[in-house]
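Example 3.2
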Amino acid sequence: MRLAVLVRSESIKTFRRPAFAVTVAALAALLLLVFGAMHVRSVIGSGGGSPGLPNAWANILDLADLPGVFAAILIILLVASEFSWRTARQNVIDGLTKGEFFAAKLCLVPAVGIGLYLALVAIGVMFALPGMGGHHVNALVRPIDAVHMGGAALECLGMATIGFFCGMVIQSPGPATGVFFLYVVVDQLLEAVLQGAGGAARTVGASLPWGTFTRLGKRAQYDPGALAQAVGHAESARPAHVTMSSTTEVVALAALYIVAIVSLSYLIFRKRDL
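Structure, written as tokens:
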């Protein structure tokens, strides 16, 4: 009951924060720009518009890293500012336990992560509906689309969790945002180096957190045809390897990373003064 009150209070505070409105508006504008550019390219290339459902799901869900990154940044702004404004300290003085404060902030991860992911789906479907042209389809969502949807949602949750960790541990919005982007760059560089080394290093490189979350949002993880196309593009761009573990393994590893990151965030938060 007390947690429900905290969640309600957190949601009211979040909706009133300018950072929430600005981030959501920026993401919506970016998605409109991206999907609009894809539509124009389809018109110029084939004479038609954007593909309709269910064929459009691959293009829509492959962009899940955009809401994932925006969710991470928004959570950093919402969480870290509670420390820089001394709100966290005042909440505990007023009777909130540190565990309750942590739980209330943790609720932002699924709320923001899934909320922004649904914004991607809504805007993508808005561009895909005209492409259906009134034609009958057997199913708007095929089994492979449903699996891809779940993976893309988990990708957003994973990226949001990394943002949550940065906000809770660094406790200042600017430095936390900088560390977040630094981590993303280092993770990707390290993955590229390890994959190029081959052997066991290649497996380690493909199992780093950011790459694991990103892989869940890509069609190549679920569709052998899309995987072959991705491998062809990678080999034509640079002599690199594309390692794709089974979906079950990637989902299990992503879930393990999320639990580990949240647990580490709590252990560090519990030992620090507010």
